[in-house]
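hiii so my PI (J.) wants the whole complex modelled not just the main chain, which honestly fair. so below is everything: two entries, each one labled with what it is. i double checked the lines twice but i was tired so who knows lol
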Amino acid sequence: MKRRAFLASLAAAAALPRASWADAGSPAYLAAAKEVSGDYSLSGISRAGERLFSLPLPSRGHAATAHPTRPEAVAFARRPGTFALVIDCATGATTARLTPPEGRQFNGHGVYSADGATLYTSEVVAEGSEGRIGLWDAARGYQRIGEFASNGIGPHEIRRLPGSDDLVVVNGGIQTDPSDRTPLNLDTMRPNLSYLSPEGAVLEVVELPELWQNSIRHLALRSDGQVAFAMQWQGDLAEPVPLLGLHRRGEDVILAEPFDAEMFAMKGYAGSVAYTQDGQQVAITSPKGGRIQAFSAMGVPLWSLARADVCGLGPCAEGGFVATDGQGLVARVIDGRLEPLSSASVSWDNHLVALG
Amino acid sequence: MRLPALAALLALASPAMADVPEVISKHVLPGYAAFSKASADLAAAAQTDCAAEGLRDEWNATFDAWLGVSHLRMGPVEEQGRALAIAYWPDPKNIGGRQLDAMLTKADPALLTSEAMAQVSVAARGLFGLERLIYGDSAQISDAYACDLRKALAQDLAAMAATTEAGWTGGYADLVLSAGAEGNATFLTASEGRQALFTQLITGLEFDADTRIGRPLGTFDKPRPERAEALASGRSLRNVTLSLTALRAMAEALAQGLGEIPQTEAAFDRALDLAGKLDDPTFAGVSDPSGRLKVEILQQAIQAARTAAEAEIGTLLGVSAGFNSADGD
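here's the output for the full assembly
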């Protein structure tokens, strides 16, 4: 453990009363961005869409995950990631820097255990892209305390099932060149969605044999445990395929087919997925197609909205969704309408991470 | 009133018309008007005589006109899947062909109205549905039902063209022209209107290089000449040429009043010159090494035009390719 991080965590522990998310201005979301200057950052965004704080990142970020109680977030580098930063969102200080073990790379996502004591990170073995879940001791300065297999190649997002410490991870199936992001196995890839125990035991695996070139990459969870997973099609773009799946432990997958008129609108790519707060709607975004498509939680298409370079997506407390785009817009999106909340001279990156 | 608003917005922009108004008044609106007119002529011709051979000229004229605007994938043409229903291609699983076969077998007279046709799957309709029924197997397309189906498909196509044109003149052009104005929820800043048009130019060039040419090219080990666009009517190369001509005009209009685009113009000229000299109307030559090389060189010339347009016009407009759309996660 780094001395500075240790001292910082001691200082945090000594502070009374303990800092809470309110001390960070109560952000509702976290999002990585590229600034006009070309620098990269992580921002806290309020419910009203205002940027509450912005902290520098050493290189391009991807997603983040928030500690369940402390105003602490971990910002992950874009894959192949060499860092994850633990940030005190109340003070803006970096309290720990996580570096993947030799020969491993972070894949942009992570999640805390329910009690906040353990951080799980999505990782690959650089050579071969075998998936690993890294375990870090979030109670004691983020020491590496273990790892287990993710049950596939190229894991991407990892989440925790609500009210449980069981994990759900999507293995995108794509092996990449260790030095960059070049895919190496698009003809033989085999993605899956895996439910894992906190010790790494495989509890259930979902595969889509007919859609084996549909890389399963992102997740949203409903409070009752329904899992929405977003996919990216690596096959012929002239073939329309569903990009959103819905699943519950022990049940069959529901594939959400868009309206006929919308079947190519996403250009085979879903970048983020989110439920509304009430869990009645689930939507996916495509920056490549400039689209948001929303479905019922049964997978029935409801509406879509055109918005260039849109990608980040989260629930809106007042109903509908909040979306971010590469032009710096934060907007509420409800029933196919766009209501701008704020605009900044930044490019919001792939994900809008909802807190709480 | 929509029309006066549009006229006023266009007038405000003159005499030094630049970029967005220029593109709309000189490229988009005339392009859709021409497509609308050509498809109406096709529908009228089909009403008079729906025999396949007699419709070839009008069908080709309609396809020509479509290529003037086929790269515009924003606004009215994107509503209700119109762009797909107008030109459903590529169709690797031959969904359109199979659905038309089923329609011919069933010969349901209730389908033969433009309202009923509007409910048919997008894959069976439009230019490619008509191509199958004009250039397809003569035994299959010579009966009376096929004749009626051509009539209904032509009417449906003309209706979609008219609705698309009306959508632009009756509101959507205003939205693009008033980008950034209070209450414009589609284009929140002035720059977003320019960005949207610029994106059409770039993705249009990508479609010509990667899809219209890239699909028949396949790989060196597995060329796929059977995947060429509009193979039955033999217009694969013509489609590329006309699309490039339209995209060149759009590039000129986008740069109008802002600056010179010499590299873009030179790259377009080179691509059009290569296309003009290519004696291979359906890219059948992709299967032999020397023929393949010529098609690859054309593809590279189009890619060079995209690169030049991105650099020169992107700089003039102060826009660039999207941040998130540029690559994956």
